[in-house]
Amino acid sequence: MSPLQTLDVFQVHIILPEIFSTRFAALIPQQYEKVNELLEKRVILNYALDMARTNLWVTIQAKDQIEVMDVLATFPIIKYVKLEIHELAFFDSAPIGLPELIMN
User: Fold this and answer.
1) Residue 34 and residue 75 in contact, taking contact as beta carbons nearer than 8 Å
2) Side-chain half-sphere of 35: how many Cα atoms within 13 Å?
3) What is the pLDDT of residue 68?
4) Residue 39's Cα: distance from chain center in Å?
5) Residue 70: CB atoms within 10 Å
6) Which residues contact 24 (CB under 8 A, 6 or more apart)?
7) pLDDT for the residue 104
8) pLDDT of the chain along its 104 residues, tens only?
9) What CATH fold (topology level) applies to the domain 8-87?
10) What is the domain partition of the chain in residue ranges?
């Protein structure tokens, strides 16, 4: 990707299986590891799971929907879930940073 190319933001809704099979449950630690890697690289901007553990929401920066699918294909759980991808008109969030230093 060239430095001038802008990235779009996509919201992915992942619907988890109703029943977690042994195989699926065994993939969860690998899923967390992959997500943390992508969060550090700022490919994934946020990742959320509902309390019922039936829905995941992932915000991804990518040049297009094909790149989003390429990212999702690296998820260990991808074979067991359904998903919907939505391109966002904008994505805004609270600033993340270090707390202000107070010199007393």
Assistant:
1) yes
2) 18
3) 98
4) 8
5) 11
6) 17, 77, 80
7) 65
8) 555 568 899 999 999 999 999 999 999 999 999 999 999 999 999 999 999 999 999 999 999 999 999 999 999 999 999 999 999 998 888 777 766 667 76
9) Alpha-Beta Plaits (3.30.70)
10) 8-87
Residues in the chain: 104
Please identify which residue in the block is written with the tokens 């790149």: 67
The answer to whether residues 8 and 79 touch, using CB atoms and an 8 Å cutoff, is: no
Report pTM.
0.83
Task: Return the exposure string of 21-44: e unless at least 16 CB atoms fall within 10 Å of the residue's CB, then b.
Answer: eeebeebeeebeebbeebeeeebb
Tokens (6 digits) for 95: 């600033």
Residue 60 CA to residue 30 CA, distance in Å, equals 19
Tokens 């019922």 correspond to 52
Which pLDDT score, from 0 to 100, does residue 90 have? 86
Take residue 29 and report the two structure tokens written for it. 């630690």
Nearest to 77 by CA among 30, 36, 22, 12: 30
So what's the pLDDT on residue 77?
98
